[in-house]
Amino acid sequence: MPSKPKNKKRRRSKPTSPPPPPLSPEGEEEAEIGFQLKPSASSKSHTIQPLGNLLLSRSTSNARDPGLGSLRFLPDDLLLDILALLPAGDLSRLAAVSKSLYVFSTHDPLWRNLVLRDLKGDFLFNGSWRSTYSGLLPHSSVSIRDFYSDYLFQSWLCANLDMRPEWLCTDNIVRRRGISVDEFVAQFEEPNKPVLLEGCLNTWPAMAKWTTEWLVGACGDERFSVGPVEMTMERLFPERPLYLFDPRFAEKVPELGSDYDVPEYFREDLFGVLGKERPDYRWIIIGPSGSGSSFHVDPNSTSAWNAVIKGSKKWVMFPPEVVPPGVHPSPDGAEVACPVSIMEWFMNFYSTCRKWKKRPVECICKAGEVVFVPNGWWHLVINLEDSIAITQNFVSRRNLLNVLDFLKNPNASELVSGTKDRTSLHDKFKNAIEAAFPGTIDELTLKAKEKMAREKKPTFWESVADVNVGGFKFSF
């Protein structure tokens, strides 16, 4: 699922946990092992099973291998990477060579990439990506038995699995209603802690207006960013397996921008001094159940707020010093390796962090509620139902020095996001702040130094030793 554009390279990491427990070909055991599949999952006529099932099967061989010939020695993920290089015609012809190649050549994510590459945003989803590409009714499937692949099975399972109840039961975020701005700053923004705010959106026209029908009519022929393509709301909504995430929505349809107000807690946004030159900072988010953003940290060391207008979202957040399990950032933060899907993370890693001493902050944010995401916090978000939301990143005085420090990073060209002017953004922003708010940076720097001095408590060893000269000191 796409997250906010951050110009960071993202690499997938393979699950470190064992593959999912075996399922019967018809999925009859799903209730016993706790998996609840979506109703559409039963329509899959050729069943791919995890390799563990081969040990329990009467069959003595894996139907995968004979139909691949010399290609059988390739790992499944590498074979799919090779097939992804083929055009649609060759992929279709390859599916007729053998049952094994049929399985690989009809792998729906391959056809999703072809649809987005070749058809751009001019398509209506037709039940599957392969059928969408051809414009025909869903293809008849080939009956295949005794085909075993952990990789393909997990890909299918992640696409068809509903959220398990135990993944949704924890709600340990602090919730507040009607607090003052000063209370918000003192209790949450200053200590850099997340909070869920209730009752902030009651006056928003969007809460009543933004239905599917209204958005289609109001947005007309305007195209919005949906992954790597742009498409109209009319094409998005009929059956939308895609995730709309657009930073220019208010410019394209001004009424969308006037249908909401920034909650009072987040109105100080110092990036505003840059005017139209500021980095991308606000997005409309529309996605179906199961869509969302895998673990990431918001761009440019900013804080953020996310308001749900329709639907609900599950949040999992870790503080800056705790990297989520299964996520592997490079030392400079330019690359992040993480599971290929949100559901895969829940399947393989969620139970791990439940045992940690420092557990994640979790919640379900419903329509009318707002989540505050402090700067530097890792967070994952998944829509529990079809959802519409607004999110904005902002810079307040509490976070200004962090942002300036981030922008002057030596590899700013790779880390800074949302603007073409990455390497000079620090100087431009700093000069604009000093012109608009003279002395603010120096004042905040002095306060930060004083705070560090107050909070630094001497260790026992420092209390009995003269750290400057390396000798002991005694008091009588």
Automatic annotation (TrEMBL):
SMART domains: FBOX, JmjC. Pfam families: Cupin_8 (PF13621), F-box-like (PF12937). It is found in: Nucleus. Residues 68-114 form the F-box domain. GO terms for molecular function: cis-regulatory region sequence-specific DNA binding; metal ion binding; oxidoreductase activity. PROSITE patterns: FBOX, JMJC. PANTHER family: ARGININE DEMETHYLASE AND LYSYL-HYDROXYLASE JMJD, JMJC DOMAIN-CONTAINING PROTEIN 8. This is F-box protein. The lineage of its organism: Eukaryota, Viridiplantae, Streptophyta, Embryophyta, Tracheophyta.
